[in-house]
Design a protein that fits this description.
11 helices; 200 residues; mainly alpha; 74% helix
């Protein structure tokens, strides 16, 4: 008897779950973005958000083992950020890259592996690097812009001191560290659910 091919088409229930968990992810990531009022926390913000938001992403991956989860979560989150005025072209670019790579990893691993869903989450978390990335991409114009927007001189000066290559490396590493913590925190809290989904 041939092995039955799993149904990978998203159902109405799947879309509802994606919508709910995406909203939760947005709220948690938005809380993380408030930390940007402290310069050094803005640099490591992608990792902090990964820790906070690991539960909704990983739990959704366990519940919906089908294609489209990272792409739709990224789309919904991006739209919510756009509505709140927090979206930029740099965040758009990093979100698209992160979501596509995350989707590819899940597809190649057949959706049911905790290890590869963790890798997918780390790649997805790189979407948030689009927030601090302009510090290095548009260094001079960026600091002029935030000064013109009314940021205190002390804040701008501190940010300039943090715009070094070592701090850039730290920013790039934070989604990996935060993603691992967030993923294992999710599995620890919802171990029974991950076991039921065959991800343990």
């Amino acid at each position: 008897m041939s092995e039955q091919t799993p149904n990978l088409k998203l159902t109405g229930k799947d879309l509802i779950n994606i919508g709910i968990f995406s909203a939760i992810y947005f709220v948690l990531s938005f809380i993380g973005m408030f930390l940007a009022i402290i310069p050094v926390l803005w640099i490591i913000m992608p990792g902090i958000i990964a820790i906070l938001a690991g539960i909704p992403f990983m739990l959704l991956c366990a519940k919906v083992q089908k294609p489209g989860v990272p792409l739709l979560m990224g789309l919904i989150t991006g739209l919510l950020y756009y509505v709140t005025g927090q979206f930029t072209m740099v965040i758009l670019a990093t979100f698209v890259i992160g979501c596509v790579l995350s989707e590819i990893v899940r597809w190649r691993s057949k959706y049911g592996s905790f290890k590869w869903n963790t890798v997918a989450f780390i790649l997805f978390s790189y979407g948030m690097t689009g927030s601090p990335l302009p510090i290095w991409l548009f260094k001079d114009s960026f600091f002029t812009q935030i000064a013109d927007q009314g940021m205190p001189e002390a804040y701008v000066t501190t940010m300039e001191s943090l715009s070094s290559i070592p701090m850039f490396v730290v920013m790039i590493l934070t989604p990996i560290i935060g993603g691992l913590i967030g993923a294992y925190l999710a599995r620890g809290i919802f171990k029974k659910h991950f076991k039921k989904a065959g991800m343990i």
